[in-house]
């Protein structure tokens, strides 16, 4: 066997950094991983993107994954599973053959399967050794050949679930107090973020800010926000210098992979080994070979020790429905308690979360937290808890936030004020977050509207309106966008929008922006006499609004009736805009 290009261990270079380096250098070749108990896994990359994997422990069989995704039923699964065992064929191929699946669905499922397999590799311990073999495909006879995945989504999912918190904190500390800003070329959609994660990104887009401010904004759980910023940082989608990873050819959709059994692609100029990788075998346990002559080799003969001689490892034969293995009783009990706590927490304050009285001393609070940590800390959960680990991480993050707040004198004083007013719960904070996210969305929508980007403005205005329906200004801006759609102009029917604006004016009759928006809508609908009533009101009580004054002047010049009557509505003195929006958005 050829000598490894580079060797090391996951303590010195975690898998996330290996994958980032592979993507950055567009490496093609095989990574081989070996744990201290000599369990081996392999990962084949093409142009830096994972394309095939073999794990030491089964993660999920394709048939089970298709069942989970609702793409096949139990009948098709059992019928083809028996044939897989007898005929030694690929399960996906048989499912297509019997008409239970199409090629597009199969490819999507294979991508998800590969993604889960590589994410499982993130759980390998720090003493796991690895070796990289440039240009070698040791998995060319494994499964159905290379698969395409989105590498940034894969890297993020692994970081989100397994990245060491201490490593994340150490990396983020290097950012210091600088405002975090997305790179102008960032393609964050490729990370396939959740709604909460997208909210973090949206907040950074709207207002670059230091990490400490972002964590205090309440936009997400601190541990999740930190991991997201870490992922954006190491892939250079934060503006810290360099071009974002995954935005060029390596991260784009790749051409069809070579057929199974095809020779590896011709090697480019030999890529340099990753800087953090130690070529010395003394750092890795077990020692990884630099040549086949080294004792206890990682791979003996071409990958036979890893994948065996058979090209396909079929699930064991079965003539009846195969049930997933049942969880141990202690895991089931843990799952039940986890579900109960997770259901209670949104309506609990921090004291209730930790199970301590409000008057407790800091030492008592810390003692209660550490007792909870003995059971709920994710790092204390064994591999059998894999199915509930994500939820446990979220639960413990909330406990950690509660402990940090209640053991910091200043934060605790501020928090106690919230509790006195009946607040301090996650549910209330979520409501505040919704309102603040709506504020941010409205601000961004206003900018896009002024720039003439009506599509973006409409989408953001809708987000603002959905997040805080009580704000008439959000409705007004959304109506301004929708009313300018070409299909609206073609039909000339604005009745539904006029009804919305009438309700908005009824709710806030002295709101300058709302009255101006209704006037513009009525003018667009050809109701000039009604429109000018709103323009006159705005011009009278907000004389700095030149647009309203211009509309009144044009109306009069074209023969309209002069303003001899009282204002149609809102006869009171012109007041500043009401509520939260008035404070944020005064002219």
Provide a descriptive summary of the structure in words.
The protein is mostly helical and 587 residues long. The chain has 4 domains: 1-149, no CATH class; 153-234, no CATH class; 329-423, Orthogonal Bundle (Helix Hairpins); 429-584, Serine Threonine Protein Phosphatase 5, Tetratricopeptide repeat, CATH 1.25.40.10. Helices cover 50% and strands 5% of the residues. The chain is built from 25 helices and 5 strands. It has helices spanning 15-25, 62-68, 74-87, 91-97, 103-121, 151-162, 165-173, 195-206, 211-216, 222-234, 304-307, 329-344, 350-354, 362-376, 389-406, 409-420, 426-450, 454-467, 472-482, 486-491, 495-507, 512-524, 528-541, 546-557, 579-584, and strands spanning 6-9, 29-34, 40-46, 49-54, 129-134. The chain has a 5-stranded antiparallel β-sheet with strand order 1-5-2-3-4. Helix 14 (362-376) runs antiparallel to helix 15 (389-406), helix 17 packs antiparallel against helix 18 and helix 21 (495-507) runs antiparallel to helix 22. It is globular and about 90 Å long.
């Amino acid at each position: 066997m050829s000598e490894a290009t580079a060797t090391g261990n996951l303590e010195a270079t975690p898998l996330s950094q290996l994958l980032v380096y592979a993507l950055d250098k567009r490496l093609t070749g095989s990574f081989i991983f070996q744990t201290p108990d000599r369990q081996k896994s392999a990962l084949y990359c093409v142009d830096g993107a994972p394309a095939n994997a073999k794990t030491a422990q089964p993660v999920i069989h394709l048939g089970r994954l298709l069942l989970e995704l609702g793409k096949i039923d139990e009948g098709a699964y059992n019928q083809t599973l028996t044939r897989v065992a007898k005929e030694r064929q690929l399960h996906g191929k048989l499912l297509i053959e019997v008409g239970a699946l199409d090629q597009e669905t199969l490819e999507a499922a294979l991508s998800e399967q590969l993604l889960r397999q590589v994410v499982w590799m993130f759980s390998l311990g720090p003493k796991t050794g690895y070796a990289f073999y440039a240009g070698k495909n040791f998995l060319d006879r494994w499964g159905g050949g290379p698969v395409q995945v989105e590498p940034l989504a894969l890297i993020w999912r692994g970081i989100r679930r397994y990245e060491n918190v201490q490593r994340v904190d150490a990396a983020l500390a290097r950012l210091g107090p600088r405002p975090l800003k997305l790179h102008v070329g960032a393609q964050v959609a490729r990370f396939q973020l959740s709604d909460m994660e997208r909210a973090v990104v949206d907040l950074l887009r709207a207002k670059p800010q230091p990490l400490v401010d972002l964590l205090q904004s309440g936009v997400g759980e601190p541990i999740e926000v930190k991991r997201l910023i870490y992922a954006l940082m190491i892939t250079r989608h934060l503006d810290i210098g360099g071009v974002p990873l995954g935005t060029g050819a390596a991260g784009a959709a790749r051409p069809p992979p070579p057929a199974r059994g095809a020779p590896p692609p011709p090697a480019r100029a030999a890529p340099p080994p990753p800087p953090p990788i130690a070529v010395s075998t003394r750092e890795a346990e077990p020692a990884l070979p630099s040549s086949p002559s080294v004792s206890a080799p990682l791979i003996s003969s071409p990958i036979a020790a890893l994948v065996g001689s058979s090209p396909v490892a079929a699930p064991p034969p079965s003539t009846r429905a195969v049930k997933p293995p049942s969880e141990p009783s202690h895991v089931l009990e843990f799952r039940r308690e986890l579900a109960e706590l997770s259901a209670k927490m949104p309506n609990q304050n921090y004291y209730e979360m930790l199970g301590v009285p409000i008057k407790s001393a800091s030492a008592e609070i810390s003692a209660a937290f550490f007792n909870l940590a003995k059971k709920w800390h994710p790092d204390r959960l064994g591999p059998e808890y894999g199915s509930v680990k994500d939820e446990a991480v979220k639960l413990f993050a909330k406990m950690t936030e509660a402990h940090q707040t209640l053991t910091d004198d200043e934060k605790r004083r501020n928090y106690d004020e919230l509790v006195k007013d009946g607040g301090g719960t996650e549910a209330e904070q979520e409501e505040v977050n919704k309102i603040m996210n709506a504020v941010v969305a409205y601000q961004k929508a206003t900018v896009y509207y002024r720039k003439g980007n009506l599509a973006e403005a409409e989408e953001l205005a809708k987000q603002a309106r959905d997040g805080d329906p009580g704000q008439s200004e959000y409705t007004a801006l959304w109506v301004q966008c929708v009313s300018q759609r070409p299909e609206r102009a073609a039909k000339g029917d604005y009745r539904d929008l006029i009804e919305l604006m009438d309700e908005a004016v009824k709710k806030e009759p002295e709101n300058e922006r709302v009255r101006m928006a209704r006037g513009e809508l009525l003018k667009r609908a050809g109701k000039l006499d009604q429109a000018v009533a709103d323009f006159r009101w705005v011009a009278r009580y907000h004389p700095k609004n030149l647009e309203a004054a211009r509309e009144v002047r044009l109306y009069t010049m074209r023969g309209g009736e002069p303003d001899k009557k009282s204002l149609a509505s809102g006869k009171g003195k012109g007041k500043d805009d009401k509520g939260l929006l008035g404070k944020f958005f005064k002219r």
